[in-house]
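Morning!

This is the sequence you dropped in the shared folder:
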Amino acid sequence: MSEKKSNGIASVGDWQAAAEAQRRARAVRLTLPSGTTILAARPEPLEWVVAGRLPARLLTAAVEPEGDTAHEMTAEEVLELAAFASQLVEASVLEPPIGEGPGEISLRDIPAEDCAFIFEWACRALSESEEAQSDEGLRQPRRRRAEESASRRLDGFRSR
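The structure's back. Tokens below.
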């Protein structure tokens, strides 16, 4: 694991191994609605923010003043959210690995109910992190309203 370069600086492999070790340390066995058991790790919200992997609409909803969350999602925003959901599910599952390579299961081959379950489970890491960082839960009521609003918008998307 420690493939230090001759100057004592960590290698790319060192960083990748450290990130994987951290993910595995957070991993839990998760039983899905289909009965399948996987090994999954909730994402670190800061990693997704720093990497620019959160949809713009999701970031906007998090910083909008109270009462400004009633916004119809555009087709582009729905597609952006769908891509985010796929990335989040894929990143959350450690075993069996999700992907298109040998020894990986394609996201298309996972039952939709299982994907939705993994997505919602992983999203709780984002909301729990925000609530944990808030002063005595002052942001909880606002966050709950935003989540309820987002859930109502997704309900229409799910029923299609």
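Headline: The chain has one domain: 29-158.

More detail when I'm at my desk.
O.
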